[in-house]
TrEMBL record:
Protein's GO biological process: selenocysteine incorporation
Gene name as annotated: selB
Source organism of the structure: Cytobacillus dafuensis (Bacillus dafuensis)
Gene Ontology terms: cellular component: cytoplasm
Keywords, in A-Z order: Cytoplasm, Elongation factor, GTP-binding, Nucleotide-binding, Protein biosynthesis
Gene3D superfamilies: 1.10.10.2770, P-loop containing nucleotide triphosphate hydrolases, Translation factors, Winged helix-like DNA-binding domain superfamily/Winged helix DNA-binding domain
Protein name per its UniProtKB record: Selenocysteine-specific elongation factor
PROSITE patterns: G_TR_2
Amino acid sequence: MRKRFFTIGMAGHIDHGKTTLTKALTNIDTDRLKEEKERQISIELGFAPLYEDHEIQISVVDVPGHERFIRQMIAGVAGIDLVVLVVAADEGVMPQTREHLHILELLGIQSGIVAVTKIDRVEDEFIDLVKEDILEELKGTVFEKAPFILVDSIKNKGVDELKARIVQYLKEQDTRDVRGAFRLPIDQVFTVKGQGTVIRGTVYEGSVEEGQSLMVLPKRLETRARQLQVHHQPAKSAFAGQRTAINLSGIAKEDLERGDVLVSSEHFIVTRTIDVVLKVAGDLEYMVKQRMPIKCHIGTSEVMGRIVFFDRNELKEENEEVLCQIRLEEEIVTKRGDRFILRRPSPQETIGGGWVIDPRGEKYKFGNQTVEDLEKKKEGTPKDRVIAALVEAKSLSLSELMTRTSIDEYELQNCLSEKVFLKYDADEYSLQSIKDLIIEEIYDRLRDYHNTNPMKQGLNKAELLQSMQNLYPKRLLDFVLDQGIIEAIFNKKDQFVFLADFSPHVPNNWKTRIENMLSALKADELKVNFLNDYLKSAGIPNDLVPDIKRFLVEQGEIVSLDEQYYYHGDLFRSAVERLKKGTGSEFEVGDAKEILGLSRKYMIPFLERLDVLGLTKRVENKRVWQNSRSN
């Protein structure tokens, strides 16, 4: 059974004991900054290993509770699988508790446990009353039916019970998919002396291995994972759900920042416009207006932008979801289904949150038709979602399609059996329409190449595929090209690919001159001048000479004796036949001179060419005919 990895989060109001509880659970103090020690509040995210056995590994993140550090809080909970809501028994639910609850709900967190801390500060007879008050405040949230654990972190009371509940719950859950492309939103960047740049983050999906080539998006910086650590321990690989530190090669600390995303595939979408489903916070104080500035938190990114409505110009309270668009000032990396939070920059307020319908939003007209189109996109059938995923990635394996579409394997297999889909290489899928498009693009490229280079056999296959690999995966290009050859659209000779109905030929505007040149060459029979003299006399430009020579040789129109002398192809072949008929199985130079009437100036290069072509083999002073035909 594959080991599974989870990250849980501690959330709640400032000074309700999140960091102390984390230390009690893990024996690690996650307040590591000097200013955090001095002010006794968490500013940055704190991480620690919580539990590990042969089945699962659990990490814990302690997110800041002070309202000024809401940005770090959002970055922290964006990658977690379970939330422990920390509420102090002597204070109950406080403003920051409520804001954390709103954010957790908007981020789609489905599971939680309530840890009631500082129970030593409340008399035993009032504990039940405290629980009732907290439960009343949690009605209508994901914590409404969550288990309550009473904790005294200092005396270690209830800590083991809480830990056991966390482990039990996560052992019953599905983990993130470790198959498919690797994605890690960066939330910390620093340097280690002697090692260089190190980033930290929670692996959202996929896996990464030591030495693997990676890319930082949206900056498109290429790098390599020199070393990996999971909770300060060296590791050869890291998987979805794990808190990971990666030592990157070839990138300076100054080149990276929180919000960048480390990926293994360039097919992840970089965008500034996203179509979204937005749910507005229930206790919104201020009106949300058309195109008003917002701050969008998605993954670990925090980007300014504007909200665009298509069926209204403002809203304040909206129980139902609103389909709209976010236009950002900077590029982000995202995909369908990613959760986000919108906040008002000033006065600061959480506006709402939701999920990404389409990471490649476009400019639409204002009106109900656009909203209807977005609704169709949101409610897309499994077939629609698979098509959308393949339009985006061009080619995906079954496991990658499951990850991107959130469709189970059985339903996905049924969907992929339809004719609109293309299966190849055992477990790779694309669309018939993409195959047709690639065929068309290859056809156009070859046609253009033939028009520009009519005397060349075709385009080098490696060069052809390389020119298209920024648009399509190489394995798909290889498959489609082979199919095009099977379907007699293309042809291939050696390493060259060409249109099936194409034959190399002299351009019409030079055809007459080359025919004149060949006639002059033929007229001189076997006592020819330099080939360049014939080309020059025929008016062939110097820049065309190399291509014309190569073409005429490939077509058998001329045969080179050496770099200067060439025979007309017909005369060369005729001379070979005369020599074969006039000799036995072997002959000497004198025999050849007598038969062909050539001087040594032509005879020696002629015989050496026979050797090169494999027609003869020199044995001492004689040539022995081989079982080959003349060129």
